[in-house]
């Protein structure tokens, strides 16, 4: 399904995204390298044996990005202009290699753009959950969306 136009979103609308993804060790190591994050808690298994987690944590920014990615097919694929911001980001539980992440999105706000007549701003609340149903990330995202009437 392609993304929705600004006019197709309604406040309170919920999406339980069908696509899920299992995070791999390679995902985490690649992401840390690509973003130049050498923190031992993410990439050094020997170091992590001595932490409360006992193994490397998946980079939290990867987790947030994955949840957005899981939402795109149902919400913004081909109809978004830009992300305007992320707010109220929290990571209540850690993510480890082997965890399978699923996403849920709720539309919180909708308003026409004051500066762009062909666009509107949607505020999404995204949540990511692991295979045990534990929330691993929660945040809001503002996206500048195309209006169908202007396409």
How would you characterize this protein structure?
The structure is a single chain. The chain has 151 residues and is α+β, with helices and mostly antiparallel strands. It has a single domain, classed as Hotdog Thioesterase (Thiol Ester Dehydrase, Chain A, Roll). It contains 4 helices and 6 strands, in the order ββααααββββ. The chain has helices spanning 25-34, 40-43, 45-48, 60-75; strands at residues 14-16, 21-22, 80-90, 100-112, 119-129, 135-146. Strands 1, 2, 3, 4, 5 and 6 form a 6-stranded antiparallel β-sheet that branches. Strand 5 (119-129) and strand 6 form a beta hairpin. The radius of gyration is 17 Å and the shape is elongated.
Note the gap between the termini: 18 Å
Helices and strands, in order, run as EEHHHHEEEE
Rg over CA atoms: 17 Å
Structural class: alpha+beta
> Do you know the CATH architecture?
Roll
Oligomer: single chain
Q: CATH class, anyone? A: Alpha Beta
Number of helices: 4
Strand content: 25-35%
- Give the overall average pLDDT: 96
Helix content: 10-25%
Count the beta strands. Answer: 6
What's the CATH H-level homologous superfamily? Answer: Hotdog Thioesterase
Count of the domains = 1
Main beta sheet strand tally, sense and closure: 6 strands, antiparallel
**Under CATH, the topology is which?**
Thiol Ester Dehydrase, Chain A
Stretches where pLDDT falls below 50 for ≥5 residues? none
Shape: elongated
């Amino acid at each position: 399904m392609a993304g929705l136009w600004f006019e197709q979103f309604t406040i309170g609308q919920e999406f339980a995204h069908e696509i899920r993804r299992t995070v791999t060790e390679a995902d985490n190591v690649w992401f840390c390298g690509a973003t130049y994050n050498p923190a031992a808690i993410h990439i050094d298994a020997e170091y992590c044996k001595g932490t409360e987690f006992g193994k490397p944590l998946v980079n939290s920014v990867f987790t947030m990005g994955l949840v957005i990615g899981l939402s795109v097919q149902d919400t913004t694929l081909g109809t978004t202009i830009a992300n305007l911001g992320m707010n109220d980001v929290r990571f209540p539980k850690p993510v480890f290699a082997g965890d399978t992440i699923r996403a849920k999105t709720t539309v919180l706000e909708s308003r026409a753009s004051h500066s762009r007549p062909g666009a509107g701003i949607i505020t999404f609340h995204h949540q990511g959950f692991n295979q045990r149903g534990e929330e691993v990330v929660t945040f809001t995202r503002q996206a500048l969306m195309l209006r169908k009437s202007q396409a």
